[in-house]
Amino acid sequence: MDRDVEELIQALIPKVTFPDKEKAEWLNEIIAQLWPSLNCYIIKYCRGKLQTKIKKKFESFRFEELDFGNQPPKIDGIKVYNKSISKDAIIIDFEVFYDGDCDINFSMSGTQIGRIKDFQMGVEIRVILKPILYKLPIVGGMQMFFLNIPDIHFELEGITSIPGFSYFARQKIEELINKKLVFPNKITKRFSKSVDAVELKSIEAEGILRVHVFEARDLEKKDVTGKSDPYAVLNVGAQEQKTKVINRELNPQWDHYCEFIILDPEVQQLHFKLFDQDELSEDDFLGRLVSRNF
Ligand SMILES: [Ca+2]
Hints:
This protein is of the alpha+beta class. It has 2 domains: about 25-200; about 205-290, C2 domain (Immunoglobulin-like). Helices cover about 25% and strands about 40% of the residues. It contains 5 helices and 14 strands. It has helices at about 5-10, 25-55, 85, 165-180, 195-200; strands at about 60-65, 75-80, 90-100, 105-110, 110-130, 140-145, 150-155, 185-190, 205-215, 230-235, 240, 255-260, 270-275, 285-290. Strands 1, 2, 3, 4, 5, 6, 7 and 8 form an 8-stranded antiparallel β-sheet that branches. One of its GO terms (cellular component) is endoplasmic reticulum membrane. Pfam families: C2, SMP_LBD. GO terms for molecular function: calcium ion binding; calcium-dependent phospholipid binding; phosphatidylcholine binding; phosphatidylethanolamine binding; phosphatidylinositol binding. Keywords: Calcium, Lipid transport, Lipid-binding, Membrane, Metal-binding, Repeat, Transmembrane, Transmembrane helix, Transport.
């Protein structure tokens, strides 16, 4: 073959023929068209259930303006697992990124006290369609959950005058997401009455991760005494374990063992955070580590 023609053919063959994760622009187009309706649903949820929850702690709290903007969440990649992994189910992972132009105002006792802007969230969502039936509707049910704690960033403006509120707001948003959506918590939907609803909610773990939190060295001094009171918080999804606090120590030895249920060691993460405990203020952050592929 002529060398120039051969080079031309080589240049035309795509470099990556079977990417692991597929882009799904068609699905993003559907989400974009559904976004006004979804937006409406989220606003109703915030004004209803979420506002009621916050009112339990801050009675005069009220959402004034709720606008989740024109930017819908975007799917960056989709992966469908093959039959040898998924057995009697179809497993689909979605990489979702939301960079919203939201604008949320809230008040206490009628006075506007704060605003959330530029909410960003990156998350891996797993959808499991199971069991597969030999009659209609073919797919008997669905499970949906976040594989890991999502990365959330948002700006809170103008609430420094209320002690503890900023911390409380962040904590509540994270807690709400973790409790509802992060593995081992999940949303399930039954499509066929022949499917056992309890079984659909159950977890089929692949294994147990055992962690030995031994020690830390040369930690930052966070207290006026020139020491810190360190403890560690470990998370695999919404599963959380804590070590004890070791007072006034920069080289703590916890020698703490804990275990986590693992569904998929390829995609789940172990989050490890260190804090200095304080009696009269929020605990200080000392450091963090994320471990994958254990
Ligand atoms: Ca301390």
